[in-house]
Amino acid sequence: MSDETTTPNANFKRRIFSGIQPSGNLTLGNYLGALKRFVEKQNEGIETIYCLVDLHAVTVWQDPEKLRHAIREGAAGFIAAGVDPEKSILFNQSQVGAHAELGWLLNCVARMGWMNRMTQFKDKAGKNAEKASLGLYAYPALMAADILLYHATEVPVGEDQKQHVELTRDIAAKFNHDYKVDFFPQPTPVIEGAATRVMSLRDGTKKMSKSDPSDASRINLTDDADTIAKKIRKAVTDPEPLPETLDGLDGRAEARNLVNIYAALSGKTPAEVLGEYGGAGFGTFKPALADLAVSVMAPINTEMNRLMQDPAEIDRILGKGADKADAIARPILEKTYEIMGMVRSR
Ligand code: TYM
Fold it and tell me: Rounded distance, CA 32 to CA 292, Å?
């Protein structure tokens, strides 16, 4: 599988690509693990391309009206969180047909054995793999297409997407090897910060997820200030006070999660948070975390609601972003077809 020592992509300029599925509410996990970091990368002046991956969303059933709403709301969430459509390319995947086309070509490069090892498929398909869509199985090859279509070199993601980005590297390497070219770069998963895996507020051993049946398990970008504060106050914890050092969080998944969330929201390290709150009980820590979460998340919620008043403007932004994305993607797709030996005479 991937070789971490591969030399950097000397022939490729730095370019960032990442995506989020518009399959329900965006969560605090999406925000801390992805969105917040998308904004940081954008503001570092690197070329950044961000996508609402609606083709991925439909690998499981989506009600059409709800999907349409979720795409617009997702775009509003990106913008409210600080993604600036003038600085980053922001679009939804289905508007750039090259994603589906390269996805097909990479289906023919990826191997069944590689796909069989993907843990997200196993988690999502569960015991009922026979009934899962073919799209859900091929999902990681489409994700590889998303990234490679732009010759992206870095992919900011949460911990759970690492395996998919590593698969992308394998697909790129096999393509380059089979066709004897140095055409696709080796993208690096960029997994940084204190909250690369935000856990459920009800169970510290489970990832915070938009698909968890319990709404109390997550904070949504659509939650208002009162809801955010209430969910944090009600988060499951143990009765012990917070430890003074990180070691003391071993075996205390819920406590660790809340400390990590505090750290990521405040820009501090978890050790600094324990330096401040070590010895304090949750009666002190939870209200402090609730205030912090409200101060960061509630303005995003307010701005999202404002943007959602004008869906036509959101559609215009996504359309413009798709044009810009297409201008980069099309030539790379054409070159891929050419390398593979297809006749392109129009
Ligand atoms: P998705 O939509 O599940 O999640 C979007 C991003 O949010 C991160 N994330 C989390 N980070 C920390 N803690 C959590 N609890 C948490 N939950 C979600 C994810 O790691 C991800 O970075 N396959 C991708 C979407 C995708 C993509 C791409 C990503 C499609 N094509 C190309 C990068 C590049 C997914 O399902 O993410």
Answer: 14
pLDDT digits (tens, 9 = 90+) for 98-135: 999 999 999 999 999 999 999 999 888 888 889 999 99
> 74 in ligand 1 pocket by Cβ < 6 Å?
no
Q: Whose CA is nearest to atom 31 of ligand 1?
A: 143
Q: How many CB atoms lie within 10 A of CB 342?
A: 11
Q: Which residue has the tokens 């077809």?
A: 337
Select which of 210, 268, 320, 324 is catalytic.
210
State which residues form the domain around 219: 215-306
176 and 107 in a single domain? The answer is yes
Q: For a substitution probing ligand 1, which of 115, 160, 168 has the most ligand atoms within 8 Å of its CB?
A: 160
Residue 207 within any structural domain of the chain: no
**Which tens digit of pLDDT belongs to each residue from 145-195?**
999 999 999 999 999 999 999 999 999 999 999 999 999 999 999 999 999
Residues contacting 343, CB < 8 A, separation 6+ = none
Query: Is residue 107, in this structure, part of any structural domain at all?
Result: yes
Number of domains in the chain: 2
The CA distance from 76 to 81, in Å, is 8
CA 46 vs. chain centroid, Å, equals 18
119, burial (CB in 10 Å: exposed 0-12, middle 13-18, buried 19+): exposed
Which CA distances in Å does 229 have to 200, 201, 203, 289, 316? 15, 12, 18, 8, 34
**pTM of the predicted model as reported, rounded to 2 decimal places:** 0.96
Side by side, the strands of the sheet bearing 89-92 are 89-92, 47-52, 15-20, 154-156, 188-190
In this structure, the answer to whether residues 286 and 316 fall within a common structural domain is no
Evaluate: CB of 155 within 6 angstroms of ligand 1.
Answer: yes
Same domain, 252 and 226: yes
Query: Do both 151 and 264 map to the same domain?
Result: no
Task: Tell me whether residue 257 is in a domain.
Answer: yes
In a domain, 199, yes or no: no
The answer to whether residues 109 and 231 belong to one domain is no
